[in-house]
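Bug #77: duplicate submission created two jobs. Keeping one. Sequence:
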Amino acid sequence: MAAQENVFLFAPNLIGYLRVILTIAAFALIMKHPSLAGFLYFLNSLLDSLDGHLARSFNQCTKFGATFDMLIDRCGTMCFLIVLAIVYSDYFLVFQFLCTLDIASHWFHMYSSLTKGETSHKSTDVTAHPLLRLYYTDPVLSIMCCGNDIFFIMLYLLNFSEGPELPLGGFSIGLWRLCAYLFLPICVLKQVVSVIQMIGAAQQIAAIDLQERHK
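Kept job's structure:
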């Protein structure tokens, strides 16, 4: 008799446990050791791209893994935005909005996917917005998520320093500020995708409601 598989010990889920540890460590250090905290959170973001590849490579795609991965992402993003709301208190409402948008968009999308019986929340059909279909393809998804995290990390680090000075033409610029400028468009685009995702998922759920009412 073949040994029973343990979903909790699948390779991508082991990566998930490591991401939880890295996230906790990052937030434990975030107010006193910004560079180390930023590095740990960046490492967590890189591993987010790895677990999906492992799941597909080892045929270990599971509903638990998909849910676990999304929860790590959402909780990590929420906590980081709370930190940014504290250090940039003048923009408290902006970070509250970003936090709410992130959670609401992914909750609507996940619920819509489950209601339609899809095997993954990353699946999109031809009725989805073209930008959303592009977003959920490799390597676009990894670039968008990692780039968004890098922007937030740079914004956080800028509260403490400009970073190493880099010569740029006739002037110099701090590395943290330069990276923030470079990754800002990715962050903005990701928020646009979140709005599109939330509206599209809400419309799909409402359409399912109408179908069920007409039965």
